[in-house]
Amino acid sequence: MKHTPLILSIIALAAGVAALVISLTAPKSHVKVSEGTEEIQAVAGDIVYLRLDTLMMQYDMYSDLQSAFEAKAQNIESDLNKKGRKLESDIKNFETQINKGLLTRSAAEQQNNSLQQRQANLQNEAAQKQQELAEESQVLLNQVMYAIKSYLETYNQEHNFAAILTTTDASNVVMVGAPALDITQEIVDGLNAEYIKTRNTTKAE
After folding, report:
1. Which of 24, 46, 51, 182 has the highest CB neighbour number within 10 Å of its CB?
2. Domain map of the chain by residue range?
3. Among residues 66, 92, 74, which one has the least CA distance to residue 14?
4. Model confidence pLDDT, tens digit, residues 65-105
5. Is residue 20 within 8 Å of residue 145, measured between CB atoms?
């Protein structure tokens, strides 16, 4: 019986879990964070912008959620790999017993059916975990974006800018913008100050 392709597919699914962490949580950017920023000179009615990729890299909430997500994904990957190696070892032992004539026909059929069922179960588990991680990653991003949007709404009640645009390396909504209209660092500082208060309150409880 041929087990190797199924074993390889299980390992591939486990590897897919690791790839998912990178593709769904890492900000797709090569922006260099500047050590200093010019003073914001925008006034009410101006159109300002923020660099979303830079903001995400400096936002403590995103960093904390991402770290927890990556740790969970790595544990899942490790568990799947462990189960895959154990199954592969059991299959090799079974094939050795078959080749040496150490099993009766009935016992061989029972072990064969059991191994095939374990393969199917492990493949299903790997696919399910990969889907769950994809959903959790999307929820993570939704939580972060909701927090940013909520903060910006409150922030703009005080500043009354005509619009707050976002730009990234991958999607340049703002092709050219005056540095004085870049509110990225101010938003980062405000978001982190707000998040620290929430995090400390949660820990205290």
Report:
1. 51
2. 4-204
3. 74
4. 999 999 999 999 999 999 999 999 999 999 999 999 999 99
5. no
Find out if CATH 3.30.910.20 is the number for domain 4-204.
Answer: yes
| Distances, alpha carbon 154 to alpha carbons 184, 193, 195, in Å | 15, 14, 15
Query: Model-level pTM?
Result: 0.76
Which position has the token pair 């949007």? 149
**CA-to-CA distance for 9 and 17, rounded, in angstroms?**
13
Extract the tokens encoding 74: 């790595």
Running DSSP on this structure, what letter comes out for residue 180?
Answer: G
Cα distances from 93 to residues 103, 104, 111, 118, in angstroms, run: 11, 15, 11, 15
pLDDT value for 184: 96
Distance CA 11, CA 32 (A): 36
Q: What is the dihedral of CA 13, 129, 136, 22, to 10 degrees?
A: -20
User: Which two tokens mark 34?
Assistant: 């500047």
